[in-house]
Each structure stands twice: as structure tokens, then as C-alpha cells.
Design a protein that fits this description.
The protein is about 85% helix and about 0% strand. The chain has about 450 residues and is mostly helical. Helix 3 packs parallel to helix 10 and helix 11 packs antiparallel against helix 14 (about 365-380). The longest helix has about 35 residues, at about 265-305. It starts with 12 loop residues before the first helix and ends with a helix.
Length: about 450
Amino acid sequence: MSVSNAEAPRLSLFRLAGPTIVGNLLLSMVHLAAIKIVAELGAEAVAAVIAADRIYMAIQLIIFSITAGTTTMVAYAWGARNLDEADRVVKLSAAACLAASLSLWVIIQWLATPLVAIFGLQGPMLAEAAQYLKVLIYFNVFFSFLAVISAALRAAGDALTPVWVAGIGNIVNVLLAYAFVYGIGPLPAMGIIGAAYAAGISYALVGGIFFLLWTRQRLLLKPVKQPYWEMTRLRKLIRIAVPAGIEQSVFNFSIIAFMWVVSLYGTEAFTAYGIGVNILSVSIVIGIGFSIATATMTGQNLGAGRPDLAEQAARRNLKISFAIMAVVGLVIGLNARLIGSFFINEPLVLDYLVALTIMVAIVQPMMSIEFTLGGALRGAGDTRSPARIMFTGFLFGRVVLTALFFWLGLSVYWVYAALIADYIIKCCMYLVIFKRGNWKTAFGGN
């Protein structure tokens, strides 16, 4: 179907971003609840969970890279009213994620311990963190499918279904986490490994619900009996996914490298940073909501042959997200100690956490620029620019400054502050690249 003949889609920002924000906020709350539950076991237990979770998210970059391609290609096909192509993209993405998940399952059995060990864990906590990571990988095939179908539904304009389905899994996750960690009735206390099994079972539940709804034609995207394997389609998916994968690799490597440097300052500084990142994730979900909404609106408008509406939507979304995240930053900054004391009361850890939370508050408006304009570029099929921007911010904002601060013997507060420099660099680059407008033709160039 010719995209020039397609009618421009009518999409609502808040109908797309709202459910996504709520869904990701609930997911962040689940992660925070898990930390709160485990916190009663001590700072070392929290550090073990944080280390395992961070490695897990890092190795998920393959899945997230594929779903970046899914989002762009489904949105473009949906905007062009080519529903059969959208279905083929979903199936191809699911097959690719299945292969990736099975590969990760094999690899992590050998690498779990050395990967979590980079954060300085030793003894029983190292062993438990490694086992925690292995348990999550056992259930990764379910996570990969729910990631694909959720991305595809949002790209097609249905942001609500992924929220209520994932909400069921979140409730199950929290309930099982407490029961498994401390033991209830006949259930033995499993410690932090119980939290891993709780998360894994919730992934399996959500993945299973999505699969049943999809195969029974209950979703907006309905499977059709048709071949989906085609080299042209696969190459396009790969060309979008590879730069997205590089971006994710740089992002996760930067966090891991940053956490490694922080771990050199002691368990207290590392634990504070780990909790701070999870607090940051609560505000990040707002940015992610605007990112996904903007990617959907950009992709569908470009698919309909309306690059003018794609740019207009991105600019409008940026203004709204900037205002909202500035308010969020103000609230976080003014309540830094209250927020920190909810999670931990050890004096030194709390002092570190308060300082980091204030810095997180400062970068909130800048995060809106990264997420919203990044979503516009990815929705248009330009995943190369975000990768370059991520690498530049990481290299100069984190690596150079962090190394300099550590070499000069400055306190960990200075290392935390490198976060601000990272976002300043990335925001400036996003504004320049978006203004140039080359992203409007990126999908056709792939």
C-alpha cells in the first residue's frame, strides 16, 4: 500500500503516554518494593539484588534492541494501514527474541558469577547474587515475548492493554516476593533468591496471558496465517536494532562502569547509588511514556506520509514533558531525605542517597529532552543518532569526569555529580540533531 495515500492517524498524546507511564510506574514500584522487602536482610543483601538486577537489565539489551525495531516497523506499517505487515513484524520479532533468550540462558549459566563479581561482592552474597541472576534468566523467554507484544501494541496505538496485563503480574510479584523471601506457612524462607523466583513467575504469568489473548484474536494486533520470514524484512529489523543495541550497550556499560567506580568507595556508597537508580527509575517512567508515545506518533505519521505532523507532534510533546518533569524534579528535590529514609536508615548510606537524589532532581527537565526527542528519532527509524549521543555523553560526561574525580581523590559526591554533565551533553546534541530534520527520511534510508 502506498503510504502517500494513507490517512494521517489521529493519536492522543495522553492516551498513549498516560497508560505507559502508569504501567512503568507500577513496575518501578515493584522494583522498589522488592528492595524494601530485601532491605530487612541488610545492606549487603540489597547490594546483591541491585548487582544482579543491573546485570540482568544489561544483558537484556538484545531484547530491547529488537523491540526498538518492532516499535518503528509496526508504527510505520500501522500508519500506512498495512496490518498484514504489522503482523509479520510481530512474528519475526518474537522469533528473534526467542532465539536470543535461549542463547542467553546457555551463556549466563557460565558467566553469572564473574559478571556480578565486578561490583566487589564476595562470599555468600556473591553466590546468591549469581543464583539470583540465573533464576531470572530461566524465565527470560516469557519476558522477551511480553516485551515484543507490548512494544507492538503501543506502536499500533494500544497503550492500555499492556498496562492492565502487566498490572496483574506486578501484584503477583510483590505478594510472592514477601512470601518467598521470608516464608509463609508451608513456604520456606528463601532469602533474596525468593525475590528472583517471584519476578520470574510474574513474567511467566504475563507472557502467558499475552500469548492467549494474541492467539485468540483478543488484541488490536491479530495474528494471520501467513509467512513472515523474509530477508528484506529481517535486514530492516536488524538495521534498526543494531544501532539501538549499541545505544543500549553503551547505556548499560556506562551504568555498570559507574557502579563499579562507586563500589570502590565502599558498600554504603554502592548501596546508596543502587537505591538512587531505582528512585530515578520512578521518574524515568514519565520520560519513557513520552518517548514511546512520541515514537508511535512519529512512526505512524511518517508511515502516512506526513512528516510535518510528525515534527509537530514531537515539538508539542517536548513542551509538555519538559513542564511535567520539571515539576517532578522539584518535588523529588524538596523531599530527598524523606524519600531516602523510606528505604534505608543507616546514616552514611542515607547521606549519600540524599545527595544523589538531589542530583537526580536536577536532571529531570533534561531527561525530558532526551526521552522525547529520542523517541521521535527512534520512531522515525533513526537509531544511529541516539547511539552516537549516548556514547558521547558516556565518554565525556561519565568516563572522563569520573576518572578525573577519582584520580584527584575527591569524594563520591563528585562522582555522583557526573550524572549532571552526562545529561547536559546529551540534551545539547539531541536538540541540534532534531532541528536538522534528517531523521524524517531515516526509515526509507534503512
